[in-house]
Amino acid sequence: RYDFGANLLGRLRVQLRADPGSVVRVRYEEAAESADALPESWAGAPSCEDLYVAAGDEAEAWFQSVFALHGFRYVEVSGALDPDAVTDITAFEITTAAPDAGRFDFDDPLLNQLHESLQRTLRHTVISHPTAGFGVRRRLGLTLDGRAQLGVAACLLDAAPAYRSWVRDLVDAQQPDGTFPPVVPPLLGRGATLGQQAGPGGAAALLVCAWSLYRRYGDRRTLEMS
């Protein structure tokens, strides 16, 4: 098991030696129940994992997830592997490229640490659209959370591109009766949110966000589109 010291959103690269056809399981978690093992589920949801089938090349093989991002602090690599099969493991943190919009410092180191944690979290949660968190169970465009987050996000970084995109998603997700699903973009398939309705706070996300983009960034076009 590997501990990267803090929760992050990103990808993992593993260098290993394994026999041909060996199935390598890489499991990701935000919390650990003990020093030796990760839970198979957390908050009622199963752990996230990547499965890799080793080619068994003589040279050490690199495995790196390409099509998925994971929120994690802890990683467990398992399978039919020798104890020294993993020769290197690296986590690559993924954040928004949006420039900072402002920051401040306190005399109290604890408040500075809290501020740094908030800014770091925002950089994980305002990428293509606002999400409720960077763990897999929170990487959803919850309408109520996205609406509430804009005020803080705009003070700390340039949140306009992500929120402009999300407002377009909100327009597309509006249902014929004028209501909105609780998650935008809506979930499809098992656990789908399409057809469900957001509460009053979430349903106001379109108007609140479009108006806030106009007030904070002078974005009249997004306001008119809404």
Question: How would a crystallographer describe the biggest sheet?
Answer: 6 strands, antiparallel
Task: List segments where confidence is low: pLDDT < 50 over at least 5 consecutive residues.
Answer: none
Number of strands: 8
The end-to-end distance, rounded to whole angstroms, is 48 Å
* Radius of gyration using CA atoms only: 21 Å
Work out the helix count: 6
User: How large a portion of the residues is in β-strands, by DSSP E?
Assistant: 15-25%
Q: Averaged pLDDT, please?
A: 83
From N to C, what is the helix and strand string? Answer: EEEEEEEEHHHHHH
Percent in helix: 25-40%
Shape: globular
Structural class: alpha+beta
Write structural notes for this entry.
By secondary structure, the chain is an alpha+beta fold. It contains six helices and eight strands; from the N terminus they run ββββββββαααααα. Strands 1, 2, 5, 6, 7 and 8 form a six-stranded antiparallel β-sheet that branches. A hairpin with a 2-residue loop joins β3 and β4. α2 packs parallel to α5. The longest helix is centred in the middle third of the chain and has 17 residues, at 109-125. 30% of the residues are buried.
